[in-house]
Amino acid sequence: MMSGRRAQGCCCCCWSHLNEDNGRFLLLAALIAVYLTAGASVFSALERPSEAEAQRRWNRTLQNFSQTFNISAPELRDFLRRYEAAMAAGIRADALRPRWDFTGAFYFVGTVVSTIGFGMTTPVTVAGKVFLIIYGLFGCAGTILFFNLFLERIISLLAFIMKACHERQLRRSGLLPPNFRRGSAISEVGSLAGWKPSVYHVMLILGIFAITLSCCASAMYTAVEGWNYIDSLYYCFVTFSTIGFGDLVSSQNAAYQSQGLYRFGNFMFILMGVCCIYSLFNVISIVIKQVLNWLLRKFGCRCCSKCHKSSARLGRRNAITPGSRFRRHNISVETDGQYDSDTEGRRLSGEMISMKELTASNKVSLAILQKQLSETANGHPRNVSMNTRQNGFSAGVGALAIMNNRLAETSDSR
Amino acid sequence: MMSGRRAQGCCCCCWSHLNEDNGRFLLLAALIAVYLTAGASVFSALERPSEAEAQRRWNRTLQNFSQTFNISAPELRDFLRRYEAAMAAGIRADALRPRWDFTGAFYFVGTVVSTIGFGMTTPVTVAGKVFLIIYGLFGCAGTILFFNLFLERIISLLAFIMKACHERQLRRSGLLPPNFRRGSAISEVGSLAGWKPSVYHVMLILGIFAITLSCCASAMYTAVEGWNYIDSLYYCFVTFSTIGFGDLVSSQNAAYQSQGLYRFGNFMFILMGVCCIYSLFNVISIVIKQVLNWLLRKFGCRCCSKCHKSSARLGRRNAITPGSRFRRHNISVETDGQYDSDTEGRRLSGEMISMKELTASNKVSLAILQKQLSETANGHPRNVSMNTRQNGFSAGVGALAIMNNRLAETSDSR
User: Fold this and answer.
1) Could you say which of B43, B245, B401 has the minimum Cβ distance to residue A100?
2) Taking CB atoms and an 8 Å limit, are B199 and A403 in contact across chains?
3) How many C-beta neighbours within 10 Å does residue B264 have?
4) pTM given for the model
5) How far apart are CA B405 and CA A156, in angstroms?
6) Nearest residue on chain B to A390, judged by CA atoms?
7) For chain B, N or C: smaller number of CB within 10 Å?
8) What is the DSSP letter of A114?
9) Does B66 touch chain A (CB under 8 A)?
10) Looking at chain A, which residue has its C-alpha nearest residue B405?
11) Nearest chain B Cα to A17, which residue?
């Protein structure tokens, strides 16, 4: 917000550029508010009758029970309060597995660091609660990093496979020479580097994988836990998405047949499911971001079209200005890169041209201002390249990408 | 993994580069496994006695109750089973707020899309469960995007503020000319673009903010809910980190004094807290990633040092090779950029030099191979720039950054 306000003095491009970031954020917040309101109405309509029904049923049960054994309502309520307290410590009418033996505690810490948080087991001692805060702080951070690295690995793998299919197509259609060496160094490099898979294809693949995984897991839970299949699917989604209500929790009974095998299967399904759904959520969020960009273009800034022409011309002029090796490369290449991905974009889906050319040219004009500034402030031209690269915001808004864009240590952490 | 295996044929640089990604991932997985084991042992030691105590207490209560009203154990167990079923529908001994009126349902969907998932309210109808799966899929994806955009905004703001302080320091020490215009276009551009704040400073600021927020929220909960302060802090962490056990849930009683105000305060605290802790987790995960890189360097690939020299020389040679405008810029600039951030790195903390120079030179050698490949496969040299940029992995491993690196639609989505 503040940066948006302070930017008023800057050139129109910079202003609309900053404004676009804030605009996207506020638009998303508004859409989420609408989404929540709609969801609340639907759930209220769906669940309210059953709530009333459950309340009636319980009142009847309570009345019968108190009449049968002539227990006064206060006595009974007091007894139930004690039972609630006991349940908080993991006690149920039917015997459950011990909460805090090693396997139980391991299950618990797993639900903590993954932020599933079923709540079937919770610390009750003060020491346990304090330790949980410290333990969870680093545990959750580590798991977020794990999920992000998994996401990187899985998308590398998908890109590799889809590139291989792409190559086969090209070879079929004869666009690739027959003596093209698959599996060789060059092919390897090309496979991982050259061609980018579509976000929709990756979303489709991850979606299919997630559904398959959930169905397999549900089959296991239906067989072992005796839940019906819909409940098992519901449990899989609630768990894999790390929501973790805790109304259904797997592997809680005191004993199962082939217990060790079931516990291992349960662990593997939850691990794979959480990683897979996390990746799927992130891919979907990319699509949502594109919808937001499309909406922003609809409301779109009129000033861009005329303002980008001038600065784009400026950009091209600067791109071929002779100067220090650093300056020529650093200023020109960013625009080249921008125009490349721009033409790439035009070739692929043809969207966001004006905004992208605006950003590209914007970067050039910024680069000049920054060169002056950085030479005044820090007094070495090399910083220009950092500035231009940083202004590109080309790394996107990913959690760690932000750090890489804006934090010093991360840019040399690899 | 597969990409790692396939890469054997590739040049040593590329191999060790891919290997490094897989190595970091596996190292983190191993460390998390150790962390979980240690945590499980500690929690088991802390909580086991209280579990046994609770069990004893409950058995006593049960025995007294069944003796006082001479109820057989099976009858009592059956009654308690019914009560558990009623509790799943949100019924408690002491009256709670309605589960599924609009405000209750809104609270519920909030815990779904944020993946907190207290479980104080859960759908019991089949329709509700099926709708939850569809609703949660897009809701959670949207919220992940919201958190990432919030992270981007908050770090922009922090960078802006810290840059302003940095400028004031420079002005005090007289490194900046007195006629340097603050708040002007140049200053604005410089503030947002030039200087990068330290990840440790951002972590410190976010940490202080998170602690302050939690303390304020805990004060409110202690006052309104009547929990003790440690419980309130524990509730704040469990909620803000989206673990959401549900053993303590705010705003569940049927009535509070100044209810509307409390519900609004509760909502705002949870919203701010979740965003803040999410950002903090991501900053901490960056630090964890640096530790992993440091560990990998410790185990470090010996071959890099000798192998980077040759290819680095190759890189410099290529950087000044006259050729098509695109090729010269695209190949050379990435290395320049690398060497810039490299020197930047050396200036700032001096870590990861060899690995970074390896990556830089690596990119150059890849660029040449890719140029050949892409000209065979796609037949236009512009792709080279995409390749070099993509191989840099300079965008880091952030959720959305991965997409920006590897998915086509995202590269032109802004």
Assistant:
1) B43
2) yes
3) 11
4) 0.74
5) 10
6) B193
7) N
8) T
9) no
10) A395
11) B414
Say how many CA atoms lie within 13 Å of A188 toward its Cβ: 19
CA nearest to A43, candidates B293, B12, B132: B132
Binding-face residues of A in 295-334 toward B, CB within 8 A: 325-326, 329-330, 332-334
A residues 134..193 contacting B (CB < 8 A) = 135-153, 155-157, 159-160, 167, 170, 175-177, 180, 183-193
Rounded to two decimals, the ipTM of the complex is 0.74
Identify which of A131, A190, A238 has the shortest CB distance to residue B370: A190
Interface of A with B in 348-407 (CB under 8 A): 348-349, 351-352, 355-356, 359, 366, 369-370, 372-374, 376-378, 382-383, 385-387, 389-391, 393-404, 406-407
Chosen for mutation from B36, B87, B383 (greatest number of chain A CBs closer than 10 Å) is B36
Terminal-to-terminal C-alpha distance of chain A:
31
User: How far from B75 is each of A63, A85, A92, A409, CA to CA, in Å?
Assistant: 15, 21, 15, 65
Contact A193 B54 (CB under 8 A): no
Give the Å distances, CA to CA, from B191 to A364, A374, A388, A406, B3. Answer: 17, 10, 13, 12, 41
* Chain B residue with minimum CA distance to A46: B128
One pLDDT digit (tens) per residue for chain A, 414 residues? 334 344 343 444 455 666 788 888 999 999 999 999 999 999 999 999 999 999 899 999 989 888 888 888 888 888 898 898 888 888 888 888 888 999 999 999 999 999 999 998 999 999 999 999 999 999 999 999 999 989 888 888 888 888 888 888 888 887 666 555 444 444 444 444 556 778 888 899 999 999 999 999 999 999 999 999 999 999 999 999 999 999 999 999 888 989 999 999 999 999 999 999 999 999 899 899 889 989 988 876 544 554 444 444 443 333 323 333 333 333 332 333 333 333 333 333 323 333 343 334 334 333 433 343 343 334 333 333 333 333 332 333 344 454 454 454 433 333
- CA dist A281 and A341 (Å) reads 25
